[in-house]
Each structure stands twice: as C-alpha cells, then as structure tokens.
Amino acid sequence: MAKIFNDGTWRDFIEKLSSYEGTVTKYCKENSMSKSQFYYYKKKFEQSNNPTFHAIVLNVEESAPKAAKDNEKNVRM
After folding, report:
1. How far apart, in whole angstroms, are the C-alpha atoms of residue 23 and residue 13?
2. Dist. CA 12–CA 7, nearest whole Å
3. Residue 66 Cα to chain centre, angstroms
4. What residues contact 28, with CB distance under 8 A and at least 6 apart?
5. Distance CA 11, CA 13 (A)
6. Model-level pTM?
7. What count of Cα atoms within 13 Å lies in the side-chain half-sphere of residue 43?
8. Residue 42's closest CA among 20, 14, 23?
9. What residue segments make up the domains of the chain, in order of their start?
10. Which residues are CB-contacts of 38 (< 8 A; sequence separation ≥ 6)?
C-alpha cells in the first residue's frame, strides 16, 4: 500500500529522481509509492509552475477620449 506524503515531500521525490540511476518503477518501489501517484504529482507541480494568462477587459469608451485629448495636445505643440 502506498504512503501518503505532503506536497513538500513529493517535490523532493521528483527532484531526487533526476539524479537516480534506476527506472521510475524501481524508484517508486524503493520509496513506497505508486507510479501513478508519482506522475500525478509530477504533472501537478509542472502545471503550477506555468504562468496563467488572465484576460483583462478594458472599457474602450473611457480610454478613447483620453487618447483623443493626448493627440490634441501633441498637435497644438
């Protein structure tokens, strides 16, 4: 039966695999975890490191008059 670890422990396991010279299957057996758990947390942490795009809606009506005023200032100078 697989053990339950916290996120910090999972991050350590994933980082240590890079220097491990055996297979993922062997690594998981030695550390009492299932491969599915290992890959789940690996994917979870990879996704959390990716930036997320958030769309921002701008009110065009409010920004248009300001742009027009700025253009008027540039023309008068």
Report:
1. 13
2. 9
3. 37
4. 34, 35, 37, 38
5. 5
6. 0.54
7. 6
8. 14
9. 7-76
10. 13, 14, 17, 24, 27, 28
Q: Which residue has the tokens 């975890």?
A: 33
Which one has a higher pLDDT value, 20 or 72? 20
Which H/E stretch holds residue 2? none
- 5 burial (CB, 10 Å; 0-12 / 13-18 / 19+) is middle
CA 33/CA 38 separation, integer angstroms: 7
Token pair for residue 28? 């998981």
- Identify whether the C-beta of residue 5 lies closer than 8 Å to the C-beta of residue 16: no
If pLDDT is split at 50, 70 and 90, which confidence band does 5 have? confident
